[in-house]
Amino acid sequence: MAELAFSKDIHHNEIPVLISSLSLRSRGCGQLDIVAFSKKSNRLNIFEVKSFKQKWVSARQWRRLRKSQEFLSLLFNCEVSITICS
Description:
Blueprint: H1 2-13, E1 15-16, H2 21-26, E2 34-38, E3 43-49, H3 59-76, E4 80-85
Parallel strand pairs: 3-4
Antiparallel strand pairs: 1-2, 2-3
């Protein structure tokens, strides 16, 4: 449910980007909760949404998120940030 609330807020201000989890996983990357493009900063933003019970990202998940970040940066030729939301 937290992901839905964050998604509505983020997509109100940014352009949503749909990234195939199959495509990411086939490259050893992590699945992404929310991805949006910011027109203001000309940057792609990855948002990892955590519930109130789990506010941290494991080292393994962080490595997969970073790999996704690197892949999307090359694919879209732009800066990509990761934000953990809780």
